[in-house]
Amino acid sequence: MKADVLVVGSGIAGCAAALAAAREGADVLVVTKATEPEDAASDWAQGGIAVTQSAPEEFAADIRRASDDTADPEAVETLVSESRAVVEDVLLDTLEVEFDAVGGGADGTDSTDAADFDLAREAGHSSRRILHVDASTGAHVLRPFLQHLSARDGVRIVDDATALDLLTEEGTVRGATILADGEVEPVFAGATVLATGGIGDCYARSTNPAGATGDGVAMAALAGATVSDMQYVQFHPTAYDPRTDPQADDDAQPFLVSEAVRGEGAALRDADGRRFMPDVHEDAELAPRDVVARAVSRARDRTGRVVLDVSDLDFREEFPDLAALCDDRGVDLDAGIPVAPSEHFLCGGVAVDDRGRTSLSRLFAAGECARTGVHGANRLASTSLLEGLVWGVRAGETAADRGRGDAEAVEYAPPRDSDPALPDAFADTKFDRLGRTMDEFVGIERTPDGLGTARARLRRLKGEVDAYARTRVSQSIYELRNACVSSLLVARAAADAPSAGCHSLVDPDGSEESDDAGRGVTPRADD
Ligand code: SIN
């Protein structure tokens, strides 16, 4: 197969890149592992999409503050200054997404004026600026996006297909090999955009859908692209925690309880019923996400359980989708929703510039697999769909410009598939080992010794997986390889970097290595 622009992944960033490239007249091929929209993390996004209102500087300041002042100011400026135009163009004009409105005022509008919309607030935001559809915004954006692209001339979508490796020629990326219908084949492309999402499968507990195996990060790293800020793995403070829910079935799974719930007044309480966040940070439950996640983790360790108390809001009325999920799991809302932090978002990734260009010629990246600099060490809530949209459009336009009419077949060595397939349990067992290692040693708080142990275990695991991958081609073995590579990159980066934002190094005795006082975090030793 050939295409001007190959897009790998079909979340919001991949869709935005495909749309933008097609608008520029490129012939676009989207290759995605997904078979359903809900296979992409974008579809699972609850909170919404933050959009600049009257004070862009205030929005930028919130992003920088949430990032522990490590975000790249120019990248933040790009995100903030383009937010309205891109949301109005793509989401309102093109896809006609019906965000929750006040008094029915937003019907048919093509502007994001605050007066029209029921804007939400989440942790770290100093004002209401989040467009949403109930607490299931992602599905209301991604599904029409996929439908639009499926019907659009110039865009082909191949689903249930796994990108295996990038095709390179003297440092230039010329497409990728893919596995589709059991066959490996090359896709030659003038430009390739990686939009493969995050690394949730590297951890035992994540808010991501299955299949978030760091594919883009690993493929880019293996091809020699620069990858950075991998130590910044964000943990969401409030994922439903079946382990501390007496009502939960044995096989109950965690699910995200949106920050919007805290934005509307829900409180975090420990097992003694104490509301602990006011003692930790002046913004209490609305402190930056990394601060809340660490505090929840410590309160849970100290007292055994943390619940999100929703008694001060009309939870069923304001969050009907979440209330239905809780009912489905048998959560007793009067007792509060049991919560624990869970892996949520990779702030680092394949290093890109303001047009999504990576360090390799003709290779672009957008969305969670890319490191744009917007998030620095910790991402502000409801900026991920926005970043995927802004950088997806920019990467798609630039990739079209670079790749139009330029797909070139190059020599490549197909991977060997000579040995018998491995049983499904093989990948499950290895993923289990990987997840336990990452949770124990590369989680919400890390120690130098723990990171050393993790690196040794991950190297061993990767060695085993590589040995099998040399003679077998399957989606699960490549996902495992990619997850091992991504995990090693996280552990390595974490071992070499001081604490900042969601990367928190603690001494083995439990005291914090870095001075976190500026973020209002109570030192662990005082707990
Ligand atoms: C949430 O709804 O809490 C998640 C939003 C986000 O990760 O930006």
UniProtKB/TrEMBL annotation:
Annotated EC: 1.4.3.16
Pfam family for this entry, one: FAD_binding_2
Alphabetized UniProt keyword annotations: FAD, Flavoprotein, Oxidoreductase, Pyridine nucleotide biosynthesis
GO biological process terms held by the UniProt record: NAD+ biosynthetic process
Molecular function GO terms recorded: L-aspartate oxidase activity
Top-level lineage group: Archaea
Associated pathway: Cofactor biosynthesis; NAD(+) biosynthesis; iminoaspartate from L-aspartate (oxidase route): step 1/1
InterPro entries: FAD-dep_OxRdtase_2_FAD-bd, FAD/NAD-bd_sf, Fum_R/Succ_DH_flav-like_C_sf, NadB, Succ_DH/fumarate_Rdtase_cat_sf
Region (Disordered), start-end ranges: 499-527
Family, per entry: Belongs to the FAD-dependent oxidoreductase 2 family. NadB subfamily.
UniProt-recorded name of the protein: L-aspartate oxidase
